[in-house]
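Sharing a chain and its predicted structure for anyone who wants a worked example. Both blocks are below, sequence first, tokens second.
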Amino acid sequence: MYFRGEIGRWGESLACKYLQENQYKIIERNFLCRQGEIDIIAKDIIKQELVFIEVKTRSNLKYGAPIEAVNEQKQKHIKRVAKYYIYKKHINHIAVRIDVIEVYLKKQHCKISHIKQIF
């Protein structure tokens, strides 16, 4: 379990670096509330959108592709947390979307796949 958590945190850090290099401003990491957790909340500077991002990291495909872990139940949790965050922070008049970032780790290399507007 500890190893999985470390891989997940490493993947989130790599995802943040990727986002910053691609014109996103990180607003929060690991936002937690009763409804669940969102890994990264960022602003897409180019499109002026608030983006809620789920990061899935894998070192192999033994349990399937990372995107497959964002099932219907996980999507409902993400939506609930996003709605609560928007309510709590009094956010109005900004476009919102939900993305998934897949991080594939292999030895000293990583591959990042950014899937925008997943649902």
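Comments welcome. Residues 12 and 108 are 16 Å apart (CA to CA).
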